Amino acid sequence: MKITYTSLKDAYTAEPEVFGDNRGWFMESYNAEKMPQPQPVYIQDNHSYSSTKGVVRGLHCQADPYCQAKLVRCTRGSIYDIIVDVRKGSPTYMQWTKVLLSEENKMQLFVPKGFLHGFVTLTDNVEVQYKVDAPYNKQSERGVIWNDPDLAIDWGVTNPILSEKDGKSPRLKDAGLEFVYRSE
Q: Is the pLDDT of residue 183 over 90?
């Protein structure tokens, strides 16, 4: 597993070693011993499907005590996965990055606790799978509008396909997020 840290504190990509031949390919999609330590204990796998190019899902997170770390991969099609560090006191607070995840590159993105997460589909028929280290809790669910001018994220789309909920999310300054950066 090749680990590459992103420009955001504590976030990284994991690129698996893929072994291919005339039959196809094999890879380890996750191996805790090959990942940066300590690794979260993942308790749930999630799987989403988006039928159309230009779908934006996000920006999402869960408040404490149900805050989630995520390990995200795209197993069909391709996406730009976008994360925003919203941990007050972090050296990368309010900064964002986007990573191309696709069925071809098989890369994964580790999203630390205290980050907003979202993605935009670059193709039709996209499947995204991700591990989380805390259960979903509806009361802890939070969101920030995808086009918040304070974040100025370059999604690569101007007229995305959004859920009603995502289209009505507040700006970051009005979202009431209280994540605090803790250096280890």
A: no
In the block, residue with structure tokens 């919203």: 86
Is 179 part of a structural domain of the chain? no
Residue 128: which domain range?
2-174
Within-domain flag for 16? yes
Q: Domain with 120 in it: what CATH number?
A: 2.60.120.10
The alpha-carbon radius of gyration of the chain (Å, integer) is 16
* pLDDT tens digits, 112-145: 999 999 999 999 999 999 999 999 999 999 999 9
163: in domain: yes
> Which of 12, 60, 93, 181 does the annotation list as catalytic?
60
42 catalytic residue (yes or no): no
**66 in catalytic set:** no
Distance in angstroms (rounded) separating the CA atoms of residues 168 and 157: 18
State residue 69's pLDDT score. 97
